[in-house]
Amino acid sequence: DQQVKQNSPSLSVQEGRISILNCDYTNSMFDYFLWYKKYPAEGPTFLISISSIKDKNEDGRFTVFLNKSAKHLSLHIVPSQPGDSAVYFCAARQYGGSQGNLIFGKGTKLSVKP
Amino acid sequence: DAMVIQNPRYQVTQFGKPVTLSCSQTLNHNVMYWYQQKSSQAPKLLFHYYDKDFNNEADTPDNFQSRRPNTSFCFLDIRSPGLGDAAMYLCATSSFQTGVSTNEKLFFGSGTQLSVL
């Protein structure tokens, strides 16, 4: 049973437009959420995170929104660039869980077209 | 540049033949992890080392073992690989201090793609 769900396997966006990647979770004990980005033939790299005590965190073109009541978070990329084309993983940490046991979603493949 | 290095990039083994995957890090992080990622699936934590302390996830098969001889190196041993063990194996590190809030920012290697024939 997936605790972190990324229901869109892929997303295609035009360069310069907004990309919105969604993530839903089922475990109310999650207290920290992260987004990782993965290029082909490379390992995932940390992109942005948000604590459950916040509802928004911004870093340049990347903003993560958290809606705890809906158990939903989203990653916004504005403006989208071709170099943003990658697989994006949503991940969550359970408060009190074993160190490093991030629960990952299956990922969403973003394609930004020039 | 400080980094997490996994070797080899691709590994082919035969059904039942033991195989070892290696990971090294120059970040001097005290925690090292092994994740398994099957095709189109989410990465799944197998186990991790917090310094020398080994922490096995409850659902990690006994077929999977790990060794961490020193801070820099960690190995994943698959004693008798089955066809279902074919996957990408990701090593990751993080720096954790007791009593300090951690953001679980993991640094990943490029992974080893394991094929079992």
What is the CATH topology descriptor of chain A?
Immunoglobulin-like
CATH superfamily of chain A: Immunoglobulins
The CATH class of chain A, by name, is Mainly Beta
Low-confidence stretches of chain B: none
Secondary structural class of chain A? mainly beta
Strand content of chain A: over 45%
Output the radius of gyration of chain B: 14 Å
Return the domain count of chain B. 1
Notes on the structure:
The complex is a heterodimer of chains A (114) and B (117). Chain A is mainly β and 114 residues long. Chain A has strands at residues 4-5, 10-14, 19-25, 30-38, 45-51, 56-59, 62-67, 72-77, 86-94, 102-104, 108-113. Chain A has one domain (4-113): Immunoglobulin-like (Sandwich). Chain A has no helices and eleven strands. In chain A, the strands form two sheets. In chain A, strands 2, 4, 5, 9, 10 and 11 form a six-stranded mixed beta sheet that branches. In chain A, a hairpin with a 2-residue loop joins β6 (56-59) and β7 (62-67). Chain A starts with a strand and ends with a strand. Chain B has one domain (4-116): Immunoglobulins (Immunoglobulin-like). Chain B contains no helices and eleven strands. In chain B, the strands form two sheets. In chain B, strands 2, 4, 5, 6, 9, 10 and 11 form a seven-stranded mixed beta sheet that branches. The N and C termini of chain B lie far apart (36 Å). The A-B interface holds A 2, 4, 9, 32, 34, 36, 41-46, 49, 89, 93, 98-107 and B 4, 6, 31, 33, 40-45, 48, 50, 55, 57, 90, 92, 94, 96, 102-111.
